[in-house]
Design brief:
Layout (H helix, E strand, L loop, with lengths): L1 H10 L1 E3 L3 E3 L10 H15 L6 E5 L2 H13 L3 E4 L11 E8 L4 E8 L8 E9 L3 H12 L3 E11 L4 H7 L4 E9 L6 E2 L1
Helix pairs in contact: 2-3
The chain binds 1-O-pyrophosphono-5-O-phosphono-alpha-D-ribofuranose and xanthine (XAN).
The site of xanthine has 9 residues, from strand 2.
């Protein structure tokens, strides 16, 4: 998606540890105009798939998940990473290692909001090693829901999470794929 790539080149900063910082528009401050265009693009790509639910993971997936859900007219459900009295006792659970936080999280989704009648589109801001998506896929399987695929805003292709999933037959549509951040230079696939 050209608009997104231009924005990444204009505002993205490469940080230590192969981190691309895009917090001016994607996962801290939010550029709603751009996020709307991204939501429309996901709708265009998955419009024939009868999606019934968008599933994402807190924190950074929520904004893009919610904006995208408007174009599908379906609810967005986000996996929680922290315990809460606010959550049902009956939950699907999985484990996710966070690349940016360097720690493991137990993620949870209330059973009542995901079931075998659902056709699920996973949405997230970033795909790196694929751990967040693997956790969401695990939860989708536990719910016996149908996994349609994943829509990702930025994939860091050099970390291979996306290609591993594709090799396992999972549809992963990323709007920008980065092949290298070496020497602080952003190189798209
Ligand atoms: O493909 P992976 O290696 O799993 O990396 C991608 C995940 O990492 C980020 O989440 P993070 O753990 O930084 O949490 P946040 O959403 O709270 O920022 C991002 O929002 C994805 O969910
Ligand atoms: O803002 C982010 N930048 C990254 O490089 C990254 N990798 C995983 N998750 C990420 N989030």
């Amino acid at each position: 998606m050209e608009l997104l790539k231009e924005k990444i080149l204009k505002e993205g900063r490469v940080e230590e540890g192969n981190i691309l910082k895009v917090d001016s528009f994607l996962n801290h401050q939010l550029d709603i105009e751009l996020l709307n265009e991204i939501g429309k693009e996901f709708k265009k790509r998955f419009k024939n798939e009868n999606i019934t639910k968008i599933l994402t993971i807190e924190t950074s997936g929520i904004a893009i998940g919610a904006i995208t859900a408007q174009y599908f007219n379906v609810p967005v459900l986000f996996a929680r990473k922290t315990e809460s009295k606010n959550l049902d006792n009956e939950t699907y659970e999985s484990n996710v290692y966070s690349y940016t936080k360097e720690k493991n999280y137990k993620i949870r989704v209330a059973e009542r909001y995901l079931n075998e009648n659902d056709r699920v589109l996973l949405i997230d801001d970033f795909l790196a090693n694929g751990k967040a998506l693997l956790g969401l896929i695990d939860i989708t399987k536990q719910a016996k829901a149908t996994l349609v695929g994943a829509g990702i805003v930025i994939e860091k292709g050099f970390q291979h999470g996306g290609d591993n999933l594709r090799n396992n037959g999972i549809r992963v549509d990323s709007l920008a794929i980065i092949d290298s951040l070496e020497d602080g230079k952003i190189v798209f696939r």
